[in-house]
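User: structure tokens for this one?
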Amino acid sequence: MKPGTEVASDLSTYRAAEVLRDGRRITIRALRPQDREALIEAFARTGDESRYRRFFTSKRSLGEGEVKFFVEVNFTTHVALVAELQEAGRPIIAGGGRYVVCAPRSAEVAFMIDDPHQGLGIGSLLMRHLVACARSAGLETLVAEVLSGNSAMLKVFEHAGLAVQTRREAGVLHLDMRL
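Assistant:
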């Protein structure tokens, strides 16, 4: 996404082309209900440590209620974007990011990138697009909880160009990022 690019008012149709660090093309787009199986496949490609960093607990699978929450997005109070690329001639979801409004003008943001696609800049791309969506929706703050040892996610937030206030509590960093 180029600076100054306008975001469509209907976030459910959001779509943008990007290039990964390794030169591959990727599409950042709105999650759709029909992405259910692709999302489950992405979760299956994600290792135990990555799952722990995302959910703060060991998680071997997603329950039906969790899958429903992840794919049934209203694009007003719950916005979800996925990073889609071509592998072996078919599209796959390599990761996703979302925000959920948790207070007036504030939303909690979270990400998960499957293990084979970590380190390619997908988290930073998703963050940049979610920030644009949040700004277009009139939000003022994004909040996140990150395990203090999750240096990759902390770098994504650090490089987002937002003013960040951080509090530490029992191994978890609480970040408030001003849009």
